[in-house]
Each structure stands twice: as structure tokens, then as C-alpha cells.
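User: Please fill in residues for this 183-position structure.
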């Protein structure tokens, strides 16, 4: 772990091999459930990009992709659940079989808002796939249909997840050294 990207890493929480195995497992479930249906993956920018790119190739069914970007709700001191859409979908989801692909569910506020918003657009079905579930932190109940990993209440980076915009391109999921948060 000597290179410039890895110098702030304290420990690897989920290795590349483990990530691949967990993603392959839920991809098989998704393939079974959506075989013969028209599937639309909705990636939540930016954190879900790496997960979506690997997951979609493991699913290996005909599918389409679209993307949304939402604002986080600032400092998390309040749990109003108000999330702002920064980039909306390009296409209508009416009558489509929609699977939201998200990097992590923490409080649940982001996914709760997305589900509520997309449901009003009359998709044929609407489900959720997450890479990581920090269940201890949940503030609002959200049904997760496909979950690759449960993780403890620790801040993680890598495989799409960032701290101040960095570390998304680490190939594994990691915990940073305390000093990485101080600079
Ligand atoms: P929620 O609305 O609290 O469920 O938060 C979901 C969003 O918070 C995710 O999409 C991430 O952008 C961010 N987030 C939550 N926990 C972490 C973490 O450990 N590392 C990086 N981002 C996180
Ligand atoms: Mg996110």
C-alpha cells in the first residue's frame, strides 16, 4: 500500500475478490427475477457508477441504463428527508421494470425519497439493489430487494464511494486513517 492513492488507507474492509463474489451472487438473483422482462437500471450518481458497471455485466441480460443525481442533505443534523434532484432521468419510466442501483444505504433518506418520487411516475415495477447496507444507521424503513453486503457503522471509501470526492477509484472497500480526515 505504498502508492499515492493508497497511502491514506487504514484497512481493507472488503477485498476485490469478496466484492466480486457478493456482486455475482445478487446478479444471479436479479437475472433470475428479470429474465424475459424489460429491465431498466437506474444508477444514482456518482457513488453507484462502479457498482453499476460491474453489476450490469454480471446480470448479462438485455437491459437499459439511466442515471440520476441527487443532493445529499448537508450536515445530517436534521433528518427531514428532503433530497433535491440535481440530474433527472433522460427517459420516462412509465410501464418499465425499474431497478435502482445505489452504492450504500445509511439513514435510508435518499432511497426513501427516490422510491417515493419514482413510484409517482408509474413504473411496472420498482425495486432496489444496494452494494452496502449500514443497517445500524437506519432512520427510515426502506425495502431493499438485493443487498450485496452488510457493513458496520464505519465510514468507508473505494469502489465508487468517496470522501471529499476522492478514493472512488480504489478497487476495494476501505477505511481511512484518522489523519486522512484532518487534512
Ligand atoms: P442515506 O440517505 O443516509 O441512506 O445516505 C446515502 C448516501 O450517503 C450514499 O449514497 C452515500 O453518498 C453517502 N454515504 C453514507 N455512508 C457513506 C460512507 O460510509 N462512505 C461514503 N459515503 C457514504
Ligand atoms: Mg450515493
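Assistant: Residues filled in for all 183 positions:
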Amino acid at each position: 500500500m505504498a502508492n499515492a492513492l493508497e497511502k491514506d488507507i487504514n484497512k481493507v474492509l472488503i477485498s476485490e475478490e469478496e466484492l466480486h463474489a457478493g456482486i455475482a451472487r445478487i446478479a444471479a438473483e436479479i437475472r433470475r427475477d428479470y429474465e424475459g422482462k424489460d429491465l431498466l437500471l437506474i444508477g444514482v450518481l456518482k457513488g453507484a457508477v462502479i457498482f453499476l458497471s460491474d453489476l450490469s455485466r454480471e446480470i448479462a441480460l438485455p437491459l437499459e441504463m439511466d442515471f440520476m443525481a441527487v443532493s445529499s442533505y448537508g450536515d445530517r443534523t436534521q433528518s427531514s428527508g428532503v433530497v433535491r434532484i440535481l440530474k433527472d432521468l433522460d427517459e420516462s419510466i412509465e410501464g418499465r421494470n425499474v431497478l435502482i442501483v445505489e452504492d450504500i444505504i445509511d439513514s435510508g433518506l435518499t432511497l426513501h425519497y427516490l422510491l417515493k418520487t419514482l413510484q409517482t411516475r408509474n413504473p411496472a415495477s420498482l425495486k432496489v439493489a444496494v452494494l452496502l447496507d449500514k443497517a445500524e444507521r437506519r432512520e427510515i424503513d426502506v425495502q431493499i430487494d438485493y443487498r450485496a453486503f452488510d457493513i458496520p457503522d464505519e465510514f468507508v471509501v473505494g469502489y465508487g464511494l468517496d470522501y471529499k470526492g476522492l478514493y472512488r477509484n480504489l478497487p476495494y472497500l476501505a477505511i481511512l486513517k484518522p489523519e486522512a480526515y484532518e487534512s
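For context: The mean pLDDT is 94.
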